TrEMBL record:
Keywords: Glycoprotein, Secreted, Signal
Family per record: Belongs to the UPF0669 family.
Organism: Pristionchus pacificus
Matches recorded under InterPro entries: UPF0669 (IPR031420)
Signal peptide: 1-23
Subcellular location: Secreted
Superkingdom of this protein's organism: Eukaryota
A cellular component annotation (GO) from this entry: extracellular region
Protein's recorded name: Uncharacterized protein
């Protein structure tokens, strides 16, 4: 009976957990409602070697995003940023994985448009889980649009599903599987 359980249950558990593991494409790093005064900058330092996407959704007023690979005082001056997004709506920036061309840390500046006394916005940072081709230095296009990512985040918050693994699964899934396999092997 013990050998039968090992032969049947080990592959069964692996197959049941495989879809959960394989959907871990993105990881939510930051999701907060923030505000900034008109004409002011808020600056963040982002440290991750994987590629990531910054999404800013205005709730009141207007903000712009500026990104620098070297300047902590990132601003709208052309000499002080490497990338920007300055629309009158949702702004986002895709940042490739770390390399000699894209060193870390990365500095993000959020500018409150001076036409508004205060701007309120939702700031989301999503990092991509490391893929084999990214380890080799090749870049990968984001499969999901910013709006699709936001929908997955919002659904995941209430349903704990989608392409985002909960912190529990991302931190402890393999430990749980290892314990289960050990128990099965002892039968």
């Amino acid at each position: 009976m013990g050998e039968w359980m090992r032969v049947v249950y080990f592959p069964l558990i692996f197959v049941l957990f495989l879809p959960i593991v394989s959907t871990a494409v993105y990881k939510l790093v930051h999701d907060e409602i923030e505000s900034i005064g008109g004409g002011n900058f808020s600056r963040h330092e982002i440290i991750t070697n994987t590629s990531f996407r910054v999404i800013a959704i205005p709730m009141k007023g207007d903000i712009d995003l500026y990104l620098s690979y070297s300047n902590k005082n990132v601003s709208f001056d052309l000499a002080n940023h490497n990338a920007s997004s300055s629309t009158c709506g949702m702004d986002y920036l895709d940042v490739p994985s770390a390399s000699s061309f894209h060193p870390r840390p990365t500095f993000l500046g959020i500018y409150g448009h001076p036409f508004h006394e205060v701007s309120k916005y939702r700031l989301i940072v999503v990092k991509r889980m490391v893929e084999e081709h990214e380890k080799e230095g090749l870049e990968y296009d984001w499969e999901d649009s910013p709006i699709e990512l936001i929908e997955m985040i919002d659904e995941g918050r209430s349903e704990r599903s989608g392409s985002f693994l909960s912190d529990f699964f991302s931190d402890h899934l393999w430990n749980i599987l290892e314990i289960m396999f050990t128990i099965l092997l002892e039968f």
